[in-house]
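#struct-pred
JK: can someone run the complex with carboxymethyl coenzyme *A? inputs below
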Amino acid sequence: MANTATLEIDGQRHEFPLVKGTENEVAIDIKSLRSVTNGVTTIDPGYKNTGACESAITFLDGEKGILRYRGYSIEELAEKADFLEVAYALIFGELPTKEELDKFHTDIKSKSVIDEDLKKILESFPRSAHPMGVLSSLTSALTAFNPSSVDVSSPEAMYNAIVKLLGKLPILVAWTMRRHMGLPLEYGDSSLGYIENLLKMMFQKPNEEYVQNPILVNALDKLLILHADHEQNCSTSTVRIVGSSHAGLFASISAGISALWGPLHGGANQAVLEMLEAIKEDGGDTKKYMAKAKDKADPFRLMGFGHRVYKNFDPRAKIIKVAADEVLGDLGIDDPILDIAKGLEQEALNDSYFVDRKLYPNVDFYSGIIYRGMGIPTNMFTVMFALGRLPGWIAQWREMRLRKEPIGRPRQLYVGETQRPFKDLVNR
Ligand code: CMC
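RT: done, structure tokens with the ligand placed:
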């Protein structure tokens, strides 16, 4: 293969280097484009063809349905690793040794406290507030209580900011849910594992001892691993771009949480469940909703279907589908919603509209069914996604800072008015 790509503009030829990734992906390096062409730029709404960075964290092949973190397949990680091991590997590049993992967990636990004044901020939100808005605000507010975490110029400062956030976010997640449900805000138990402690913080009743259910621990661990990173998606790019201005880690992650909230991104898991509920309420007529999804005059989309990058099965959806069956079976839950989901999936997989457009179930199609089986309220589903995505966001933010990437600042093609004279108010 040639080493350069040639671009001809007005008879002038310009050569640009081709760069190859470790998985043989090829990119045209256009860093010099504007300077050699006298200001010509590219236009690519939605960045469908734009590589914003080089990254060594996550590899995704949407055509083949491959997802790997740091070279390890998602299937193997979901089966053999736990969430903290995956978080460590994503952030620092290698799977931890036993000693490294123990130290990482101890350091996280040592930061797992929240300033009591932050509780007041949480309590001042209406109980009906959407948990994603609350979580984003509280994460941003963490900066006010931890101003020293903004300057991460030394490796120690960066490490401290990272373990602080990994320690504090599960508490904010649990408290956001408990506040919504009217339960008292409590700390868990630092002698427990990361996931066990999270479950205890979320579900502990004030008048009962919390008994761990290994099925729930395992299911949540797997779900969080499957959500832990997904290269340069909307929220991750947001985290990188906010972080590129050297705003602190907490502010960058808060922005990522807001980006994740939307129904075209992480908010899809809530939207899927609401859609399945609506279909059930409407008599379970999946064909009617398939027709709506295909009707271009109808804004309805089949939530949980389609993906910007996967044009084959989402490998995470395959794992989650099996997990949903297992978890609901183990918990003895017979959920009619699961049958509607399976029916819808079968119809879509055999429908030329979906087949031609390569629209397959994505990670969110089945995750909400498991969360619901675990007793998590529907509007908390995206918050669970955010907690799962935290290590990925941190890893991407850290990589961006360590590579000393320039501030993110895209160009545009201006299509507005050219210069015109100002008109006085009386003459308009
Ligand atoms: N239902 C019906 N039609 C769809 C759907 C859908 N879910 N998704 C895409 N299409 C159609 C779309 O109308 C378009 O048709 P046409 O070519 O005739 O105009 C074609 O498929 C391509 O769609 P697109 O919107 O150009 O594709 P995109 O890459 O910009 O969007 C997406 C990807 C995920 C936003 C979109 O598939 C969608 O809205 N899906 C539903 C929401 C959802 O499940 N989001 C979660 C994504 S996975 C979790 C995450 O990583 O955030």
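RT: quick notes.
The pocket of carboxymethyl coenzyme *A is lined by residues 230, 233, 264-266, 268, 293, 301-308, 357, 359, 362-364 (CB under 6 Å).
DSSP finds 18 helices and six strands in the chain.
JK: thanks, will look after standup
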